Amino acid sequence: MVHSAPPQALPEPPPPSGCFDARFKLPDGPRSPHCVRGEELCALGSPLYRQDLDRLRGRPHEARLITNDYARPQRGGCLTTDSQFLPWNNVFVTYVPGEQPAAACNATLDKVSGPRASPLASCTALHPGTRLTFRATLVVPDPAGGRHQQEWSACVTAITGA
Q1: What residue spans carry the region label Disordered (predicted)?
Q2: How far apart are CA 93 and CA 78, in angstroms?
């Protein structure tokens, strides 16, 4: 009786060009069930993790968020939108001052720099290796009701899943 060696598993094919393996929020987070496009991986607010994200795709760009609220943006403030999954750029947001339950927000303000101050140079990522935290310019209407808008620099962290 001749015993043959058990069949060896074929190696996994390499992912298509421009397609990446990613995890959810953390190095040991759940693996993405599908190949992730670079645009999806690097979208502002994306919870997808890759240790080499900045090397692969460069630093994130700055978002522009437009609000119709006159309240002065402050750390811990809540941003809400009509959609939970956004491209987070040139989007209208509602600003709610003060700490809010996470379920009530699409994002929170981690750091804020006033309209006449220098823009924030960088933000500290809540989950390094993701685009959950990003820099943004908040465009706020003139509190005096004039036509001059104020621009605030902010660090924003998108809220996604557990």
Answers
A1: 1-20
A2: 10
79 DSSP β-pair partners: 95, 107
Q: What CA–CA distance (Å, rounded) separates 94 from 76?
A: 14
Q: What is the pLDDT of residues 30-88, one digit of tens each?
A: 998 888 888 888 889 999 999 998 888 788 889 999 987 888 899 999 998 876 556 78
Nearest to 46, CA basis, from 92, 86, 16, 94: 86
By C-alpha distance, which of 118, 116, 112, 117 is closest to 95?
112
Number of domains observed in the structure of the chain: 1
What span, in angstroms and rounded, lies between the C-alpha atoms of 132 and 47? 6
CA distances from 32 to 19, 84, 134 (A): 12, 19, 22
Q: CA 130, CA 53: separation in Å to the nearest integer?
A: 7
Determine whether 42 is exposed, middle or buried from the number of CB atoms within 10 Å of its CB (0-12, 13-18, 19+): buried
- Asked if the structure places residue 45 within a domain, the reply is no
What is the distance between the alpha carbons of residues 20 and 150, in angstroms, rounded to a whole number?
A: 39
The answer to whether residue 34 is domain-embedded is no
